[in-house]
Automatic annotation (TrEMBL):
Pfam families attached to this UniProt entry: SBP_bac_3
Gene source species: Defluviicoccus vanus
A cellular component annotation (GO) from this entry: cell envelope
Name by which UniProt lists this protein: Transporter substrate-binding domain-containing protein
Signal peptide: 1-22
Source organism, top-level taxon: Bacteria
């Protein structure tokens, strides 16, 4: 199944890949990675199927596998760093990283601090409620209710009616009115707040909700997607040559079926080849 998104996404990605600070040496990321013999990939290990850390400190998840495949395609091993969601979005490098695979949706606001050279999967936003809750059947039914969301995400922007997924300002159908937004640290925390009755609903991705259900969390997804969004590899601004290498590598992962295989492994559906 293919989804159609505004063509302006393509313009956003091309602009991000082409943007470079005047006078900045190009491909410095590749040079630094080669010198240390590894790429540093920023990830956010807060919930499967995207990313998590096990008791032995080993990371697992779709984003982890994609980062490893991307680094290998670029010719080096990968080291994972966890600077935190907010620091990644701000483009900060207190914990230096070369690229981020953290399920980040490109937006004009985020493009001020980051480049987005390549999309690697699609996502769908959904409303989740407790499994025994019968008064909610459609997303609009949670209007006026307390809704938990991961902070500084497109989910929070949606509830605040401030979501813009492309430079052209594509229209978003806001069906939830007067939400009492409760920002939390992660998608997993949003679902926990729901189950613990600290929220009436949660807004997250369909894969995250389905994975939580599979793990036994007593939740259900309301029928109807709120919106579809792409997620992209992020890089620091200023190195167009490295951005092009990332874009080419991700495209090769798509063309040879690697992204589709990893998506099916973690989500049970191919979200890696459905790209606008």
């Amino acid at each position: 199944m293919r989804f159609s998104l505004p063509v302006a996404f393509a313009a956003l990605l091309l602009f991000s890949a082409a943007t470079a600070v005047a006078g900045t040496p190009q491909d410095t990321v590749m040079q630094a990675a080669t010198a240390r013999n590894a790429f540093k990939a920023a990830v956010v290990p807060d919930q499967l199927p995207l990313a998590t850390v096990d008791a032995d400190g080993k990371m697992h998840g779709f984003d982890i596998d994609v980062a490893e495949a991307l680094a290998k395609r670029l010719g080096l091993p990968v080291q994972f760093v966890t600077p935190g969601w907010s620091n990644i979005l701000a483009g900060e490098s207190a914990k230096p990283w070369d690229f981020a695979v953290a399920s980040i949706t490109p937006t004009p606001r985020r493009e001020k601090h980051l480049s987005f050279p390549a999309l690697y999967r699609m996502d769908a936003a959904v409303v989740v409620v407790r499994s025994g809750e019968t008064k909610f059947e459609r997303p609009q039914d949670v209007s006026g209710k307390t809704i938990a969301v991961k902070a500084k995400t497109t989910f929070e922007r949606y509830l605040r009616k401030d979501l813009n997924l492309d430079e052209g300002g594509a229209d978003i159908a806001y069906v939830i009115e007067n939400a009492k937004v409760t920002p939390v640290a992660s998608n997993g925390d949003a679902l926990k707040a729901l189950v613990n009755k600290k929220a009436d609903a949660a807004l997250t991705t369909l894969p995250s909700a389905e994975a939580a259900k599979k793990d036994g969390m007593p939740i259900r997804v309301l029928g109807g997607f709120l919106y579809f969004e792409p997620v992209a590899v992020a890089t620091h601004k200023g190195d167009a040559e490295f951005d092009q290498k990332v874009a080419d590598a991700v495209e090769s992962l798509r063309q040879d079926g690697t992204l589709s295989a990893l998506s099916t492994k973690w989500f049970g559906i191919d979200l890696g080849s459905v790209i606008p």
